[in-house]
Amino acid sequence: MRTLTRITLAATAALTLFAALTGTAAALRSLQLSGPATKAIIARELRFGSTEVEAINLRCNVTLTINQLTIPIPKVAGTIIGNVLNVAIDERNCVGGTARILPREGTTTLTRVPWNIKYVSISGRLPEISRVNLKLEGAEFLVEVFGGRCLYKGEPTGGAPVTERTLTVREITATRAETSVPLFQDLRGLITCPRTGYIEGGFTFERTLTIRLL
Question: Contacts from 13-16 at CB under 8 Å and sequence distance 24+?
């Protein structure tokens, strides 16, 4: 009888734990971002460089105009959560060279956007999270330094650090380890372009965002 009681209690405990875990997972299948859909995010001294040639250390002020989805976003890797609508680089105040975004074919002013912003994963222990990891699809930038003209194109990754208790986001950050981008085209300048480049720095939101876990 005691053995049967123990088995029954163990089974009940296991079922309770399973229900709790599956209930939590079901409740955290998506994210939702607050705030206006279209906004500008600003990077002070965004760095462009190459781990192969440390002398390349280009810094520019960059402003992105992004459009984020305000509907619930499935926590599925590769889901598009927004777009980069415009990229503005303050070329005149760049230090160490120049970076720019090439115009669309047949135009002189329209840049080759939009770029898709994709959800990759979250860091931390649910239901509290520490970072939302993102990927930028279709990003490209032309670096002009030391007489070289190097066009890099790829899918750099980065993330939005999250304040765990309030689930708020103030910026998107990227490190050189995350944003390695391959050389797309060597435009035959005075130097041979490094095979990879990177973007490093942080973009600050004008207004703090709040994340809801659904």
Answer: none
Per-residue pLDDT reduced to its tens digit, 30-50: 888 877 778 788 888 889 988
If phi > 0 it is left, if psi is from -120 to 50 it is alpha, else beta; for residue 150 that is beta
pTM: 0.79
Name the token pair of 198. Answer: 């990177």
CB 194 within 8 A of CB 150: yes
Distance CA 44, CA 193 (A): 25
C-alpha of 184 from chain center: 20
Higher pLDDT, 37 or 10: 37
Distance (Å, rounded) from C-alpha 171 to C-alpha 134?
12
140 close to 164: Cβ distance less than 8 angstroms: no
Per-chain mean pLDDT for the chain = 80
CA atoms within 13 A on the CB side of 58: 28
Is the distance from CB of 58 to CB of 47 less than 8 angstroms?
A: yes
* CA angle in degrees (0–180, nearest 5) for 191-195-201: 100
Kindly state the average pLDDT of the residues 133-156. Answer: 89
Q: Hunting for tokens 């979250």 — which residue is that?
A: 122
The pairing of beta strand 80-89 with beta strand 168-174: unpaired
Query: What's the CA gap between 180 and 196, in Å, rounded?
Result: 6
